[in-house]
Amino acid sequence: MNESKCQDLGLLFLRVSGALFLLWVHGLPKLLSYNEQLKLIEDPFHLGASATLMLAIFAEVLCPLLIIAGVLVRLACLPILCVLLIALLVVHPEWTLFEAQFGWLLLIIFTTVLISGPGRLVLPQRFS
């Protein structure tokens, strides 16, 4: 296998595994337990629990699905990075590196995808 194909497989693995992890651990629980999450979600910018939760669901459900499909990948990384930075720097600034390691690793993954792009293993252009 040539180097270009290996890079494309690596980018596919990175974007799909990172997106699935975010979707499974954070996105789906918010979507499937919406009413319970309304009572739990922090609202650092005073937008209201419902608006804040909908923005989080957008970033943690819709954006990962776009990234998995390879559609608007760089654009889809931006809301995810915003949510992660807000969580780490605004909502939980007291967290140690140990407590925040999952967030920082996701930040590294999605920043890498933002910089590198999706690679060539994406849906055909007519769907992108």
Derived structural class: mainly alpha
Question: How confident is the prediction overall: mean pLDDT?
Answer: 94
Radius of gyration: 16 Å
Number of strands: 0
How many structural domains can be distinguished in the coordinates? Answer: 1
Instruction: Give the uncertain stretches in residue-range form.
Output: none
**Shape, per Cα inertia axes:** globular
Proportion of residues in extended strands = under 5%
For the report, how would you describe the main beta sheet?
none
Number of contiguous helices: 5
Produce a short descriptive summary.
Helix content is 73%, strand content 0%.
Structural notes for this entry:
This protein has 128 residues and is an all-alpha fold. The chain has one domain. It is built from five helices and no strands. α1 packs antiparallel against α3, α1 crosses α5 and α3 packs antiparallel against α4. The relative contact order is 0.16. The model has no long low-confidence stretch (mean pLDDT 94).
